[in-house]
């Protein structure tokens, strides 16, 4: 157990007495490498035992410093009350907006399950003890004092809510020229594998924090790619459940058709543990009406041999956007075969252009309707922007909000005509049909396969505040639009940057998808910790915008 009294504000110095083992043997390793100082002032009345203890503390600190300089700090164990630890590169990932004011002790090790597990919550999900900003200055005082049902479930089972993770502002739906991982409140999240590389979005801070070892688990949200892309690019596991398995109540929304929350962890088992807790019905969210019927102990159902004899559909039409990623993918196909899988190439898929056009129309309409409903549920004394139109006006009047990119998607959403609009109704029917029944379902049936796989996305791109994201493509769209489960698992590296493999199944096949991903993970063990490559920020003119709001 370690004392976290006075746990840091998002970007303040840390001064804690600690042992290795804090947050799953990671936080000491995290914070070592910045500095360790031990100050002992001896007096004449010290006993021999006190002198011996002080000298032992100094020797331990010297050993800790040497190990930190050598990059081998994970196994350290220091006596309590001897080490002052300073923030190092892991907190320069800028992954956390707010640390919980109530967390003072953590006693958790990998394998302990949910009890005591430290968990970061994406800052578009409400917690009773911290503001929920969605990264926007318009919501900076939004603290209605309520837990989202998924957060309440975590607390009830002993999970420790460690803080709120940074994100792409408004879950990356504000602008077509956004910089993923940036919010006006939190600044720019950075990729721990290369600090000048992007984290993808919108669950950017959730992914970067888990990759950096700030917590073993985080909750992200996805509308299309916002769990799976940042998870893959930051070298962790990310799971987007079937839409309706997890409640969306008290989560800042984009789309009732596609939104879901899900776990982001270092291992598939931890993702399954977290999902088991957060899954379940919620009377306030009609989409979860069938959730309890499909909620199981997802961790208990994991089977390292589950790939043996199974026909796996390889979506060849979702490769080709990253040569390096394709090479890593091909290597891992051999690993799947070695684990007993039967690979079936699928060279043609549904019309993704048609799906994308219909999807965008759906998202614009639902964004306006659902965000207006959410804003109306907040406290007027805390949130003066009561509609999307109010937020647009607020952004126009707030220089920091629009300094790096605009709000063209917000403006387009404001022009939509509601859920009764025939064009919206037709777009929703078309997008779901093409992605689900005529997409994932048809491919699985026609090729007699139990799951579909593809590279999740390419490696992280360089941060570019002029041109925005350099996004090559991903496997997220079909599962996102259909509302089906999608798991990404680390499969290797391209020039030191992590890439992931996607496992996609049919509706309510969450258990099966997790088990196949677990079998792949156990066969490959591809994940490795980041080395926190130094970053030289050459963007001096915009550097203040990339830092958190002061």
What does this structure look like?
- Helices cover 33% and strands 14% of the residues.
- It has helices at 22-25, 27-31, 48-69, 149-156, 204-212, 228-233, 268-278, 291-294, 323-338, 352-377, 388-396, 399-402, 408-414, 422-446, 477-482, 510-524, 543-546; strands at residues 2-3, 36-37, 84-85, 96-99, 105-106, 118-122, 160-165, 182-183, 187-188, 217-222, 237-240, 260-265, 311-315, 342-346, 451-455, 486-494, 497-504.
- Strands 4-7-6-10-12-11-16-17-15-13-14 form an 11-stranded mixed β-sheet. It has a two-stranded antiparallel ribbon with strand order 1-5.
- Helix 10 (352-377) crosses helix 14.
- Residues 1-43 and 68-88 have low confidence and may be disordered.
